[in-house]
Design brief:
The protein is mostly helical. The protein is 68% helix and 0% strand.
């Protein structure tokens, strides 16, 4: 994915004034990128107490789980900041992407 597109999608996903459905779509598109800025932005949204459930689910379930499965799992420090539903979504998604039963340990 092109740098300009990554930057535009990050800006949108972090914009609390943007419509939630647009932020959800941006989060889902960002799963295609392994850019560290993407991971940081999605983690930031998952820690935001004001983010709606569908945005949190898109960031964690649709994007962070897939990115982490390709690159590296989220750290214990990152996971400790997540709201409850974000943590559940991440773990479920990550396990699905890595394949449950392969002996992997999930944070």
């Amino acid at each position: 994915m092109e740098t300009w597109r990554i930057e535009a999608l990050i800006k949108l996903v972090l914009d609390p004034a943007a419509r939630e459905d647009e932020r959800v779509d941006a989060a889902m598109y960002l799963c295609e990128s392994d850019d560290p800025r993407v991971r940081a932005a999605l983690v930031q949204v998952c820690c935001d107490q004001g983010a709606g459930y569908s945005l949190t689910a898109a960031c964690t379930g649709e994007s962070l789980g897939e990115i982490a499965a390709r690159t590296a799992p989220l750290t214990a420090e990152e996971l400790a900041l997540f709201r409850g539903e974000a943590l559940r979504e991440y773990r479920t998604s990550y396990e699905q992407f890595i394949g449950v039963g392969n002996g992997a340990v999930v944070g």
